Amino acid sequence: MAHNSFPHRSEWFLPWVGMEGLLRRWRGFPRVLWAICQWSQHPPCRLYHHPPGRAKRLLLSHFFQPQNLRENQVVRLEDKSAEVTCKSQRLMLQTGLIQPAGPGCYHYLPYTVRAMEKLVRVIDHEMQAIGGQKLDMPTLSSAELWRATDRWDLMGKELFRLQDRHNKDYCLGPTHEEVITSLIASHKTLSHKQLPYLLYQITRKFRDEPRPRFGLLRGREFYMKDMYTFDCSSEAAHQTYELVCEAYGRVFTRLGLQFVRVQAAVGSIGGTMSHEFQLPLNIGEDVLAVCSNCSFTANVETLDPRHPNCPVCQGKLTETKGVEVGHTFYLGTKYSSVFNAEFINAQGKPSLLEMGCYGLGVTRILAAAIEVLSMEDCIRWPGLLAPYQVCLIPPKKGSKEEMGIELTGTLYDDITEALPQLQGEVLLDDRTHLTIGNRLKDANKLGYPFVVVAGKRALEQPCHFEVWCQSSNEVVFLSKQGVIDLLRKVQTV
Predict the structure, then answer these.
(1) Using a CB cutoff of 8 Å and minimum separation of 24, what contacts does 472-479 make?
(2) Closest CA to 415 of 462, 463, 452, 464
(3) Is the dihedral of CA 87, 89, 94, 97 positive or negative?
């Protein structure tokens, strides 16, 4: 608002006397009101205020993203009794992706939440493509259900247990076999024509780990996708089992992660068949046996130590370490028989449902992907999961290239207008009190797939931007149209 829109100080603040002064004050009053209203509707534009009619620019300075980029700051963030024991944990702490809230529990900060939401969308797509239906079950689980399957005692100290005001026992669910089976059992008129059911949820889980470590790889509170399937026969249940396993494989393939499906123990879940989906990692707590002759792979805990060769072809087994990111179980009627979960078969008679259960560790996949793909000092994301795909870095304010600040803002608008799939995926590092070098270092550490810098060549004719492509570790100089053409290939979810 122009300064002269306001009444002059001498017109408004000096004490007038007589009728003339009073009238002069009243004549000026509407002008003041109008000016204030106009200012409130259109405050002075900030340097990066988005132009009218265009998408709002996402500015890095507005984000709650604490950064502790020096190595010696990280341990101080952790609980005093904990240790920073792996690369992903250290990097996620340094870059403000997570912050400790207690042993094995973390605040997931905005970048992490965005990455997790993208991972959930990938999982939802693959689960629903095979007929999965999403639901949400209570975290608070009655002890009566767990006692019915004897797992209240079998699970031991792993369960977080509590009592309500009526002294009834509950636990915070680490898994939901009892809960889902009792839900299905409450529907007494289930027909074979309605089957199979593939029901899944993505929720927080709780497990009282004796020694939480490795950040999100082994915590006491975490996100998991758990699916429970219900079929009318053992044959149909096995077909569903393979269907879900294939969908799991597609999830990891889309993320660009090399995985191994291995024979596994059924453990406290139970059933007659189980497989783990493992990412080979040196910090992994599982030891995997891989046959050099055939496709046999297994967790060594399922093998007889007296027979060192492959049980299928007698080939030599080699050992490697891995991190479990998924687990599948064929349950049969283990739970349906306890809760009398039945359906009406083709002969019109009640029959027990055949079940399977399947888990994906959402937060564990995210951390394991960072562990696998990242360098020692820089995060690298699966392309689909990067919190933001593009980071734009304008020149430092007051530098010789300061005119490039406006060019960067225009480039932001042109990218989001030309490429609708990147709306909400482009971030402008408006911290122009810092040098380009410092902001480029931060961007490299946070792992944006594409970093676009407006340096000296942005002011030349023709204008060229410096583009850092993190996946290929290449730096290229491109015109504005060249930048848009390069980003046109970016896939988002």
Answers:
(1) none
(2) 452
(3) positive
